[in-house]
Amino acid sequence: MLKRRDFLKVAGIGGAAALTTLSSGKVSHALVKWRMVTSWPPKFPILQEGAELFAKRVEEMSAGRMKIDVFAGGTLIPPLGGFDAISAGTVEMGSSASYYWPGKVPAAQFFTTVPYGFTFDEITAWLNGGGGLELWNEIYAPFNLVAIPMLNTGVQMGGWFRKEIKSVEDLKGLKMCVPGLGGKVMAKAGVSVVLLPGGERVPALEKGVVDAAEWVGPAHDLRLGFPKVAKYYYYPGWHEPGSQCELMINKKKWEELPKDLQAVIRAAAYEINNWSYAQFEMENAKALNEIRKQFPDVKFTRFPTDVLKVFRKLTNDVLAEEAAADKTGAFKKVYEAYLKFRKDMELWGDISARAYFKAEELR
Amino acid sequence: MLKRRDFLKVAGIGGAAALTTLSSGKVSHALVKWRMVTSWPPKFPILQEGAELFAKRVEEMSAGRMKIDVFAGGTLIPPLGGFDAISAGTVEMGSSASYYWPGKVPAAQFFTTVPYGFTFDEITAWLNGGGGLELWNEIYAPFNLVAIPMLNTGVQMGGWFRKEIKSVEDLKGLKMCVPGLGGKVMAKAGVSVVLLPGGERVPALEKGVVDAAEWVGPAHDLRLGFPKVAKYYYYPGWHEPGSQCELMINKKKWEELPKDLQAVIRAAAYEINNWSYAQFEMENAKALNEIRKQFPDVKFTRFPTDVLKVFRKLTNDVLAEEAAADKTGAFKKVYEAYLKFRKDMELWGDISARAYFKAEELR
């Protein structure tokens, strides 16, 4: 059926030119060249690495028919410029986290993480089976954006403290770097929230400008030098139990993309998502063992039960206030879907993973 | 660079013919047509569905350059004939579980699940970051097989019992359908293990031929009618805490495959792996709620603490015996790697996911 073949134009860019012809005539196209901006610093472990690995996979899987140039945060546009740039179509895609856009789409925070929210396995179930991804894309559509889950950090840590927290009283007036909804919850508990970029937190702790700061988890925290300037490493990361990052794509460009490349992008994102979670787990475990060895004076300390209970209660207050504040109704809609999913899964969760973990602890 | 293009032969099979040409000359090939056999019954929820969805994704992602015909268990070869057929190259690939081959590669059981083994998130970390997948492929290589993780069931259930188990004493002489290492552990606890195919377990329970039987989880168990014939539904599934199924490929055919199609297969498997876990979670949760509603006389019962402790101890005995019995040394090697990973992850696991789950339970 030679006459049914479409020979489309060859886009010769940077010396790489590809021509694909298919007798079906349904999928045939020239080289597609896209740009991806990320919110991660250059060479940032796992997250920036993962974005670059994703681009490599897409090129491999498409047999060179698609090439994505990756720009770390600040190298093409500012780290948090992705939402606007991708929405406008200035760049085609980005690797970021939906909770970086609370001023634009407050409801999108649920798709990264909220305090006392989902872990890696729970958000995987919600997004891929429980309607979460459909809802995310419904919320993003008015912004001309498409979201695909990519890069998950697993459970984060509660942060570094210069002094021990024995009760909720000890939080009052404490100066701490903790952004987002976790910060709002801690502010309600009396913490004086200070916002500083990641790189400025260790010096601020060292100089006593702040009393506490959270960052990511052992791997990233060790690298920045936190164990040298604070001695109480608090857990669990109740405020970020499994942050799901996003692959964000301009919706119009996505819809124009041939179906095969859409499928390639989607699958590559899932591969990298699994890879990133595995890397975080491994690297965090290694770094934690390293901190224990190198910094024997660092104490791994659990937040007191009363403090965790207060955080839990205040989380519900903060989420209710956010829902009331979002006049579009989107926050309320996603919050209700999130609560319904949690309720639907409750009995199963109790007798499956949670019951198993408890059984595993018996000796 | 037209003269560098390779025009390879077009394999016109079933009316679908594709020709891909690339100026790089590195990746160019004709239509690849493979067959996949599975261990799952036709239309088996999630697992057979997932294998078929995988084939669909590969066809989409390759823009029709690769087509995989999927044969459910028993439709081309017997459900457990995959290992030999793929090893010999009679068929190119299969969807199965490595613990179905204890007589051929006892060590491979670790890559599906062992009693008191890894959950979905833990095996994801082990395989993709902790060296598990490399070890799996090392163990499979002498059999001319390549493994890629695909399809994960999540935590299973402990099984259906016609009478309550109050202590280890109640297990003595109990006739139960429970295969694999879980069965060996229960046999050591005094259970009389009976091996029956999935479809024969409900009738056997109904007739009192057996006193207990395990199958998968609420979704599959409800479908087969277990709640009608047994009233105690035991948890947790200590014997299968997160069964990781496999995509098994003939090694020689895999190595002959163009790199782009290798990458496509790998990524599609990861996408389907996430999808399957999400489906299991959702469908199990739904079915459990349904069982509670439709069968109010069914009791969801936790194994007594003493019984779980005995299972744990006997699991260690069984694994040690299996290691001693495998004269190739492979079981011991994988067991040691599994224990090392568990030990390396222990501190991190305790203060991350496990600590978070406990914090979440506080009210």
Summarize the structure.
2 copies of one chain form a homodimer. By secondary structure, chain A is an alpha/beta fold.
Number of helix segments of chain A?
13
* Distance, first to last CA of chain A: 69 Å
| Backbone structural class of chain A | alpha/beta
Form type of chain A: globular
Largest sheet of chain A: 6 strands, mixed
Mean pLDDT of chain A: 92
Tally the beta strands of chain A.
12
Query: Which assembly state applies to the chains in this document?
Result: homodimer
- Give the largest interface pair and sizes: A-B, 91 and 91 residues
Spell the H/E element sequence of chain A: EEHEHEHHEEEHEHEHHEEHHEHHH
Q: Unreliable segments of chain A (pLDDT under 50, ≥5 consecutive)?
A: 1-28
Note the beta-strand portion of chain A: 15-25%
Strands across the major sheet of chain A, in which order? 8-7-9-6-10-12
Helix content of chain A: 40-55%
- Which value, in Å, is the CA radius of gyration of chain A? 22 Å
Task: Characterise the protein shown here.
The structure is a homodimer of 363-residue chains. The first copy, chain A, is α/β, with parallel strands linked by helices. The relative contact order of chain A is 0.14. In chain A, strand 2, helix 1 and strand 3 form a beta-alpha-beta unit. Chain A is globular and about 60 Å long. Chain A has a six-stranded mixed beta sheet with strand order 8-7-9-6-10-12, sandwiched between helices. Chain A has a domain of 29 residues. In chain A, helix 1 packs antiparallel against helix 10. The N terminus of chain A is likely disordered. Chain A contains 13 helices and twelve strands. Chains A and B meet through strand 1, helix 1, helix 3, helix 10 and helix 11 of A and strand 1, helix 1, helix 4, helix 11 and helix 12 of B. Strand 1 of chain A pairs antiparallel with strand 1 of chain B, so a sheet runs across the interface.
